[in-house]
Structure prediction request, 737 residues.
Amino acid sequence: MKKNLVGYAFISPWLIGFCLFTAFPFLASIYFSFTRYNVVSPPVWVGTANYQVLLTSDPLFWKSLKVTLYYAALAIPLGVVAGVSLALLLNLEVKGMSVFRTIFFLPSIVPSVASSVVFMWILNPQMGLINGLLRRFGILGPAWLQDTDWALRSIVFMSLWGVGGSMVIYLAGLKEIPAHLYEAAMIDGATTFHRMRHITLPMLTPVIFFNLVMGIIGTFQVFTEAYIMTQGGPEDSTLFYALYLFQRAWRYLDMGYASAMAWILFIVIMTVTGIVYRSQKRWVHYGE
Amino acid sequence: MESSLTRKQLLTATLGAASAVGLGGCANLLPKPRKGRKIVNFWHLLSEPWLKPTEEMVARYNESQSKYQVVPLLVPDTSADSKFMLSVVGADPPDVMLHWTQAMSTWAEGKLLTPLDSLMTREEMRRFKMESYPVIAKSGWYKGRLYGITVGFDLFVCFYRADHFREVGIDPDPAKFPATLEEVVEIGKRLDRFDKQGNPTRIGFLPQTLVNYVPSFGGWFYDDKQNQLTINTPQNLKALQFMVEERKRIGFDKAIRFLSGLTSSAGVDMPFIGGAYSIALDGEWRVEHFRRYAPNLDYHTVFLPPPKGGRPAASFSSTNFITIPAGAKQVEGAWDFIRWWSGLQDLKASAEFYPPFGWMPRGEAAVHTPKYQEFLRSAPQYQTFLNLAQSNNIEVTPSTTYQLFLMDRITKWSDIALRGSLSAEEAMRQIETDVQQERARRRALGYEE
Prediction:
């Protein structure tokens, strides 16, 4: 018992921090979501009014949810395809491969605020790098972040910049695939495509599944890029759910309403993640 | 033996944990007060180029008396509001804060601020109302209480490039500047320059921010006297229609691209210095900017001419408020500092604090002091702002608790109209609809208006 106490004492800073800064706010926000609360004055119970107003008469709530779902639908599959493709390329036996791996991994550790500022310049319609290159070929590039059709796609495109993080995990997954499976397939005459289709991808599905779940959780909480680059514009085309939640909480001091939004987001994320979890029986191979 | 060792381990671990937790919060970084002085913590948002004048001004206050020591702290603009609110909620606010938030009414309603009229003597209140420019006298109030005193306020006038005017054969003498907005538009057209593909390389005159133009059209979004919204009025609509028409002339997409290339808001590559505009509606701080970054820039300032039938000498004004947060520990010191800086103590003596910031003083009396006149001689374009400050046609952010939402919707829907995605009429209707929906939402949740 005393030995246990020593252990608890050693982890007490984390435990205290977790209880104070994670568990308590998490649970308190359930209560706040049923209140009118502006941070300063004591919360006032309003029952389900926040949820009712959100679901029935707040067009921006639905707009932000739609923007976030659209972003997730584009960014998650693209991230998986890009991450797996990159990992496959960086799994080749080429001289100096560790240098290439480092180069492709580096962007993922650049803080997203810094990346956002850099991309604002890269995507500037007048002075940006991309439109500058397109101009050389006589093409008038889009206005990117200033264009309602392109702003969200630009942020999706930018999300690929950080694909190095998942790429490393895919690479580790590739290294775990037993070599004898490939040897046996080659003896049986399997082509490169067949080896990829029937060995590499199936054996990589547990890793893809992990990154998919993490990707879902991450994309539903996208905030920094829109906050720095577009503030939700133009014309609300990049008004992500987390950004709208932040505006309600800190700009309009509507913490009760924002708490209700946070819980709806939590339910949406849990639902989508649950569906993906249920689907894993059909496509994730654990090599059993 | 085993039991003793366990106790020691337990003690070490607990102490270690306590130290780790304590290290983050117990570091005493507070400045030590000079002997016999009380510390007054002052938060502000005045980064460069205002940081040095702020520190010098505070140093002068500290030298001017021996009771208090004001300690300035620069708070980043982007997180200032949340830092301020959390400091009040956490019962550790600054004693005095300068900010340019539009959320004054919301904060007052939330009891985040100390009503300053409760600290003022009758004489001070009388002088405040008598001496201050009209725009200052009507700013900072919420439900009959004064929560912020304005130190520095923005007005918007036309800056125009004399060299560009000469280039197209127009006399740049301010006395000969057009008397109506329609004439300004015509001159603007003559000043436009385009490349071979028809993209603008210089725009003579491009109206940009709706709230800056509406007062000249005789409109505004809120009637403070009646406490009523006045969003979708003919005057407001006319202002937006005028702006949309100007965008249409340049081409919506071309204007967006042109504006996206003008990224600098301060420094030597400001669009007006670089020649991207010939006529621009801008604020008084630019005079100091131009003097600093382009001392030889050949330009003049004039009031924005009203459209035919419009309201002369009109402008929107955003103001810097100096406030005392609720729960401030050194209220007396904070109030003494406010009185000194705002000129409630001595308006004429306060005149010398403003030129280094490029700001206008609280009232006309300060302008006639030798120090301020010296500043005006070095920056004669500033006189236009001082003349405009005397006008009663200056509009300020409405004193309602949903004012941020209102101003955000105005910005959003006018921007959509200026992008050509919506007609001016539809944009005005949308502002009205959104704001009424928000009011209904707030009422449903029991919020005060």
Observations:
- The longest strand of chain B covers residues 38-44.
